[in-house]
Amino acid sequence: MEFHPVIMAAGHGSRMTDLTANTPKALLPLGNLPMIWYPIKMLQKAGFETAIVIVQESTKDNIESTLRNLEVKMKLEFVSVPDNADWGTADSLRHIHERIKPHSDLLVLSCDLLTNVQLHCLADIHRTYDAAVTMLLTSQSVNMTEQSVPGHKTKRTAEKEFIGMDSQQKKVVFMASEADLDESLSIRKSLLKRHPCLTIHTKLSDAHLYLIKRWVIDYLIDNKNISTIKGELIPHLVKKQFSKPPATHNESDLPNPNASVMSVDTRQDIYSYLQDSEVFDLAKEMSSSAHHMTENKIGCYGYVMEGGLCIRSNTLASYCEANRQVPKYLSSFSENNPIAQIHPTVTISKSQVGNDCLIGEGVTVGEKVSVKKSVIGKHCSIADKVKINNSILMDHVTVSEG
Description:
The protein has helices spanning 17-20, 37-45, 60-69, 89-96, 119-128, 189-194, 214-222, 229-240, 278-286, 291-294, 316-333, and strands spanning 3-9, 29-30, 33-34, 50-56, 75-81, 105-110, 113-115, 133-139, 161-166, 171-177, 198-201, 204-212, 300-305, 310-312, 352-353, 358-359, 364-365, 370-372, 375-376, 381-382, 387-389, 392-393, 398-399. By secondary structure, the protein is an alpha/beta fold. The protein has a seven-stranded mixed β-sheet with strand order 5-4-1-6-12-8-13, with helices on both faces. Strands 10-9-11 form a three-stranded antiparallel β-sheet. A hairpin with a 2-residue loop joins strand 2 and strand 3. The longest helix is centred in the last third of the chain and has 18 residues, at 316-333. Residues 289-294 have low confidence and may be disordered.
């Protein structure tokens, strides 16, 4: 395969500890199925047969057995990382680099990503521009800070991301988070001169799905100061797009030929890792308007998903919203084996269940019960005359009358 999928499932779920204290984040139920099931089904639907899944040592057996019971057809290679290691996503990529198929680029995605994006849309951009990285960007129509969630009512604010894109080239030329900025946002004149069609977006978010060139992984191996993909690697590559390759010198032209070898910086520049594809070289030769292809070989591009489903369940609010959306899209993830809205083992009579609900295995529903916009977990018991609206019930929950 052209791309080797890697699913990141080693996160602790630090933003939703009420749910992840006893359950691995990757196994939290979305529509009564484990969260990680959805990115696996998306990959499977796109034609992938194998994938690497990065998990914590303590959760490996649990996640592996759960997916085995769900009869996932893909061949999954589980790679564990130490529970107590303070590793970021880039550190995890370094950890598995020897397992990546030779000459394959990477498709990296988070286990908490719920999306029905067509992966070929990103792949087309990645191939067209021979991109170093192509990322999925989403424009959310739902404001997660306004969604009602259980627990104490606290004011929640979402940190803005500033993403600058050249609308003509789909190129990402600027990235910054609100926390990294002072009172104002500064854009260099040189950037505007090179990209006059620049648009700064504040309502786009990084969906944590990336196509990454193999040479970028080689660069990561030698640059261990880069720990995360989103927070460090991507901004680093975006800035490197505007750097120039180091000048080559003959021995007689060395700037300081008498300097001690101990003082010479032996680290390789990022340009020494670049590997052009034969197809890209041919495209440059044949293209009459390929100035954008030659200006810099380090290219960062983005595919903006408009509409459809694209939610990261990395906070309590987004997790609740993902569960609200799942009933609408579940059939697209299970085309060959449709999943029933109400499990066949459910006991129910003289009650109303909306079309936007899911009720799991072994649930008992009393009489004159109303269920709307809700997901009911497995083996729950709901007494008579109960009204459930806009709610998520985990497994083994009892709701009494009154």
